[in-house]
Amino acid sequence: MSLTYFSGPKALSRPIDRLIENRSVFTLSKSELNLFETFEPCHRVPLEFSEPLAVAMIQGKKVMHLPQASPFTFLPGESLVLPAGQKMLIDFPDAALQNPTRCLALAISSEEIYSVLDELNLRAPKAETGDRWQLRPEQFYLGNDNRIARTLGELVEVFTDDQPDSQPAKEPLAKLKLRELLVRVMQTQARLVLIEHCKHHASTHRLAFAAHYIKSHLHDSISIGDLSKKCCMSKPHFFRSFKTEFGLTPLEFIHAERIKLAEQLLSNPLRSLADVCFAAGFGSLNYFIKVFKHHTGLTPKHYQKRRSASPDEK
């Protein structure tokens, strides 16, 4: 999912003051929304914010240079979360006047972040004793997460709404959406960390064990009841803990992992859809097609054709 909210004229009709990182700013009490547009190719453009930052690509691409990572391409729909004072150098290889590179950066006050962390740790403690909610600077790349993109889009609508009758509700609406965004970011970070290291943590963390078991048994029938027993948790407690920490229900997580496997299998143009369906753990071809299209926006057949097509045909 990509952020299409800037395709309309409202946020993009502001004057162009500069061709490199032309900036439009929308400010509220606990946050600041920055829209950056670049209209010509350039390299090693520096950027730094004094507050923690959520960054999302809207159009075009950047190459990001961060001290803690090798250079990487940043594409539409993808998002990052960066600590205060993070120094960045950015390349814009494809920017053009008629096809600018567009990105948003949402700066959030540390005070608001600590408030959300305190409330989460009090009201929704994690499953394992001693494990606390936190923003993880090492897990800065969040990928293409539909929930984060959708919440960012709703925040953009709040920030850019300049109708007089909307002004009294702007601050409370932004506060609610900022808190939702922070929760979704932390859920995504926790999910990515546990998935990446699920085998390592499986013996000490019950949800890591669940993630590892699911990833290792995608071709099998997986019962949520059996999975909760393996984690030594009641089914309601397991379901609630999984949804709270990962931001997905166990079934949504199973589907997401099976679709990842199906995408890998579909890269082979000779594999039949039925073969891919059952190898990825789906018991019905029609159900597989429905779930695959929900996750990717394409039918499996269309996805397979696109993967096998030459670059000129895609």
Care to describe what's here?
With 314 residues, this protein is of the alpha+beta class. It has three domains: 196 residues, Sandwich (Jelly Rolls); 51 residues; 56 residues, Arc Repressor Mutant, subunit A. The chain is built from twelve helices and ten strands. It is globular and about 60 Å long. The N terminus is likely disordered.
Short key terms for the protein model shown above:
314 residues; alpha+beta; Jelly Rolls; Arc Repressor Mutant, subunit A; 3 domains; six-stranded antiparallel β-sheet; four-stranded antiparallel β-sheet; 12 helices
Describe what is shown at a glance.
The protein is 45% helix and 18% strand. With 314 residues, the chain is α+β, with helices and mostly antiparallel strands.
